[in-house]
Design brief:
By secondary structure, the protein is an alpha+beta fold. It contains three helices and seven strands. It has a four-stranded antiparallel β-sheet, with no helix packed on it. Strand 6 and strand 7 form a beta hairpin. It is elongated.
């Protein structure tokens, strides 16, 4: 089976069109991830994960309890909490946009935006 010149041009055009989403949505754009920590809907801290270096641990005191948060390089995690279920601790470290850590008893939410 031989490909005609029109077939080759059609394949080339389709191949070029397959890269169109990269051009439209940003080829090589570096994703900037920021961890937004809120308690009962109020933002208490924003941490730029993309540029963060080293390890930092801090405590967030809420009216309902305490959470220990660790930022290690470009990841963030709740490493200790005094709530009964500790689901927030079991969530582990997060680093990608859209990921969420929630401690419902303390009304604490960490969103990566």
């Amino acid at each position: 089976m031989m490909l005609s010149r029109r077939d080759v041009l059609l394949l080339a055009a389709l191949l070029l069109c397959s890269f169109l989403p990269l051009a439209v949505f940003g080829w090589g754009r570096s994703p900037v991830a920021t961890a937004v920590i809120t308690v009962d809907g109020a933002t208490i801290r924003e941490i730029p994960l993309t540029t963060h270096e080293g390890r930092e641990t801090f405590t967030v005191d809420t009216p309902n309890g305490t959470n220990e948060i660790t930022v290690d390089g470009r990841t963030i995690a709740v490493t200790d909490a005094d709530c009964h279920d500790k689901i927030c601790v079991k969530s582990g470290a997060m680093e990608r946009k859209g990921e969420v850590i929630a401690c419902l008893p303390h009304k604490l939410l960490i969103e990566i935006k």
